[in-house]
Specification:
By secondary structure, the chain is mostly beta strands. The chain is about 5% helix and about 30% strand. The longest helix has 8 residues. The protein is globular.
């Protein structure tokens, strides 16, 4: 995923990388996701070449509380899955009802620290809380920062209920193969 890239969220968009709606069909049919989890974000292989032909989906466990104890690896209540690219499923039980549906597009602010963006790929994480202990176990286990999702980038009116991450951010880590391709993804931690 290389140098920093930033993406905005467009409500109602139809792009391959999306936020909200139902889980991708490949995730539903594989049975990878924990029962009761709800779909949050899908980064599509067509938009992110380092995924080497796979999509990555983020799902949130039913009952996840951003202020709870399950906010850090390895016990985080958010899961990331690599899977084959696929269309959105029709399984409404996988939908996170507190947000609308939209697509990711290259950020208009270009990643300006003061501009709102929804996804940041590559580089160093932009932490809300500058505390080393959040990533310590991830780094120890061989993971590196891949991307973050920041709820400050939700457009007005997109959140229909509670913010899934408590108006915070999710930091996703992973491992890469010899060619630099992402071979594993892991929800690292949330901050708000």
């Amino acid at each position: 995923m290389g140098s920093d890239k930033y993406f905005d969220l467009v409500p109602g968009g139809t792009g391959s990388s999306r936020v909200g709606g139902c889980s991708p069909d490949a995730l539903v049919t594989s049975g990878q996701a924990r029962p009761g989890s709800r779909f949050f974000v899908c980064l599509a292989a067509s938009d992110f070449p380092a995924l080497a032909g796979q999509d990555v989906s983020i799902v949130i466990d039913d009952g996840f509380l951003p202020s709870g104890e399950n906010t850090r690896y390895p016990d985080i209540g958010v899961q990331c899955y690599l899977h084959a690219p696929s269309a959105e499923s029709a399984d409404d039980s996988t939908s996170l009802g507190s947000i609308a549906r939209g697509s990711l597009v290259p950020a208009s602010g270009g990643g300006d620290i003061d501009a709102a963006w929804f996804v940041k790929l590559g580089g160093a994480p932009r932490l809300i809380q500058e505390e080393d202990y959040y990533a310590r176990a991830l780094v120890r286990d061989g993971y590196e920062f891949l991307f973050q999702v920041d709820e400050n980038g939700f457009p007005d009116g997109f959140v229909l209920g509670d913010y899934p991450l408590g108006y915070g951010a999710l930091y996703v880590y992973g491992t890469r193969g010899n060619g630099g391709e992402v071979v594993e993804v892991e929800a690292g931690f949330t901050q708000f």
